[in-house]
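ok so I'm stuck.
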Amino acid sequence: MTASRTALHKALLQQPRQAGSREGAGFAPNTAERPSVRGKFLYVGDRKYWVKGVTYGTFRPDANGRAFPDSARIELDFAQMAREGMNAVRVYTAPPRALLDVALRYGLKVMV
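replied:
not stuck anymore, here's the structure
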């Protein structure tokens, strides 16, 4: 990781999450609870869940065959997604556990 990327990474990680202020805008609190379908809407618990998401990948496998970036890059990407108001990430291949852990920390639901 270059020095400028490392500085950006540290700056993004030091910013407080905005999840509490977004809850009224259709964002569910940071929870591992799975969304459920009721009629034509998604709910997390009793709250309507409005998907505001992006796709993540597919990526060319690295020399070791990993289909996702390293954990530091995922952390940086997900921090930026959460800061920009996203609440969901769509992936096209089974994600590693580290990706799911980072998504949970930033309040992002992962759809495979």
